[in-house]
Amino acid sequence: MEVFGLYNYWIVIVLMMTGFYVVISRGNLIKKIVGLNIFQTSMFILYISMGKVRGGTAPIIVEGLACPEGAVCYSNPLPHVLILTAIVVGVATTALGLALIVRIKEAYGTVEEDEIQSQEVET
Amino acid sequence: MLLSFLAVMALAILRLRNLLAVVMLSGIYSLLSAGLFVTLDAVDVAFTEAAVGGGIATLLMLATLALTTDEEKRPAERLRIAPLLVVLATGALLIYGTLDMPSYGDPQAPIHRHVAPRYIAEAQSETSVPNVVTAVLASYRGYDTMGELAVIFTAGIGVMLLLGRARKRRDD
Amino acid sequence: MHRHSVLRVTTKLLMPFILLFALYVQFHGDFGPGGGFQAGVIFGAGFILYTLIYGVENARRVAPEPVVRVLIAFGLLLYIGVGYAGLLLGGNFLDYFVLAQEPEKGQHLGIFLIELGVGTTVAATMVTVFFTFAGRGRP
């Protein structure tokens, strides 16, 4: 049980490293953005899974919830708040990155990193 | 279980070269993670992730594909060993780091002992808002949220500047 | 998308419900799951669905771009304005206690206004970003 209790962190790390690998090994800029999104979502899962309390429920106060004295009945609301805003900010910044990619495509005619670099070297 | 699905999905994204399929898979990936957030009691987050990841982000990527290309170039033939090594080393170090972490769902974990109990205990009486997430978002951490909103505002302006202006130039 | 009559009719049927649901999420966010960020993205997604089916030109007629651009700024300004209102009424920046007679009422009002600001900016930004991307395709 003690070892299995860390399973969530391990999956998060696998996801994070997959995203990281996509970002550093692929030359296609759109694929890089998808990789960054994978990385970002793994971060969200890390925070949210840390906020979970076994036997807890969503942090919306309900009158008359049978909660034994001294026990924690609601999951931690703080990570939820942080991640909630992070998701929307994430999509806004993704949109900005995609806009940059569209401009790069118009300027260079390609979205592959090495082709852009060779064009830069030629000029 | 859902976590394992997510890992499979991420690996599939890594392998595929057709960008259209990659984008669709990343939409499914977001939707799966939204389901995961529900099981982790984060209903507000799941809401947002489903609407953003499954809807808007996927659509924006599709729009980008329409404007650029939907096929990734075949990567260089030789196996690039350096990125793989870096990733494996980082992953191993991170897993070593998790051995000290509190186990999943532990109510005694340090994260649950500091400010969260106060939020849960006082939010209802101080703000008369039963949804603690809303209360913390708008009231206790109002400055944070204002900053986030400013970031979204700036990103929106940035997209308009990057893509909006050239269209006008082409018009005249 | 002129030939897909099923899609067109379904979209028309769904639109009011999506927008109504977004408003519900916005204004019921104090009591159940929901709030400005969620409502903003749902509202934006509703408009984006309309744009997908009926084209950018029709969508621009429903939500004229200058109006949407003003709304982006309006949401942020409403947020900051609530902060300054607290300042002017004798509290600190973003203090809601002073907005009404009783502190709890003031808090509730402040949270409500701030969520409204968040929702407006998020929805308007999403719609604008999508319009910009979609409008790029045509010469």
Shape of chain C: elongated
Helix content of chain A: 55-70%
Uncertain regions spanning at least 5 consecutive residues of chain A = none
Number of domains of chain C: 1
Structural class of chain A: mainly alpha
Order of helices and strands of chain C: HHHH
Q: Which band does the percent of strand residues of chain C land in?
A: under 5%
Please give a structural write-up.
The complex is a heterotrimer of chains A (123), B (172) and C (139). Chain A has helices at 7-25, 29-51, 77-108, 113-122. With 123 residues, chain A is mainly α. Chain A has a single domain, classed as Orthogonal Bundle (Helix Hairpins), CATH 1.10.287.3510. In chain A, helix 2 runs antiparallel to helix 3. The radius of gyration of chain A is 21 Å and the shape is elongated. Among the domains of chain B are: 1-73; 131-172. Chain B is mostly helical. Chain B contains seven helices and no strands. In chain B, 75% of the residues lie in helices and 0% in strands. Chain C has helices spanning 5-27, 36-62, 65-88, 103-136. Chain C is an all-alpha fold and 139 residues long. The mean pLDDT of chain C is 82. The chains are: A mainly alpha (123), B mainly alpha (172), C mainly alpha (139). Chains A and B meet through helix 1, helix 2 and helix 3 of A and helix 1, helix 2, helix 3, helix 4 and helix 5 of B.
